[in-house]
Amino acid sequence: MGETLKILVVDDDDVDRMTVLRALKSGEPNACVDEVDSAAAAAEALREGDYACALLDFNLPDGDGFSVLNDIRNSGISTPVVMLTGQSDEKMIVELMRAGASDYLSKNSLNSETLLHCVHTAIRLHQANEEKRRAEDALKQSHTQLQEAHHHLQESHEQLLQSEKLASIGQLAAGVAHEINNPVGYVYSNLGTLQEYTDGLCRMLETYEKLESLVADDEPELQRLRELKTELDVEYLKDDVRNLVSESREGIARVKGIVQDLKDFSHVDEAEWQWTDLHRGLDSTLNIVNNEIKYKAKVIKEYGDLPSVECLATQINQVFMNLLVNAAHAIEVQGTITIRTGMGGEDKVWVEISDTGNGISAENMKKIFDPFFTTKGVGTGTGLGLSLSYGIVHKHGGHIEVDSEIGKGTTFRISLPVSQPNQEQAKDSA
Q1: Topology (CATH) of 270-430
Q2: C-alpha span between 198 and 202 (Å, rounded)
């Protein structure tokens, strides 16, 4: 071999050791050889030295070949070992090879040619095994990286699908709101006119009632009129018809409000970065998810003074919706959801959504923003709500924090910059 070999010779017999040294030097005159005479010294030398090969006598004063092999292999030392033995027990030789010996050589047939052949063969096999191990490690690492890349790609794909679904739902909501808005508009207008007509008719009835005193009591028509008034209960009708019209107008006004909230929530015509009133977004979102909340929790608003915030309003509303729905689901029977807002310095705003629900365990707190992680039952949650919310807030240059205590509830706090410092970058990330 072209390079200088560094070899360890382990033998307690001076004559045998000299025989091995002569055989090595005759074939490899430049070989660097270290000598030790015990198993303990051999193990220590192999741990500390970088040897190409070790020539190890089977019988040593403080142990045998098996003990040394087990010691160094358990220590992670892979140096090739050629076992030198005066025995020809085939079973023992097989056991030595299983214990980690690279080869064996009988002292009875020891010469330069056979010794160097064994040494070089052991070194080549060791190098080949090391290359194979490195290749396997590299393959495992590549496989792990490929799995991670696939996992990230799957996450991105699922989040993209979720975003597309949300966009489609927003388009649908806006379309439904637009279609409902027209008939609701003229029904509301007609009810207003009907209320005016009803008020007029009631005033006319009251005037007719005043004329009754001018008609003789024995007039047959007056008697029939009084009987009809009693039969129809005109006094009740006058009050009730006014109430019916008023309640109908109130109901239609609520429908109009819901339609407007749908439009505000979807913001289909406002998909660009723009200055937005977060309180308006919170209120419209609350109306959208009212059915999820009203039977479970009382909502308390503690709004501070907020400036308009530069954001993607549709996506921020989606974050509000995810947190509000999760808060409602965390409450088993009855509880409270509190929404607080405020300023975090001159250039940041914050929104807190707190619930008095079950709370989140310390174990789950580490995973709540992971895609597909959910504590809800099968078919109840996708595990993407908080992950998607985290991504949206991060894209806005903000951050989301959570504080929870088992049995007492959870608080999510969203912090957002008032303005986007790098508008072009923000647009690209959208």
Answers
A1: Heat Shock Protein 90 (3.30.565)
A2: 6
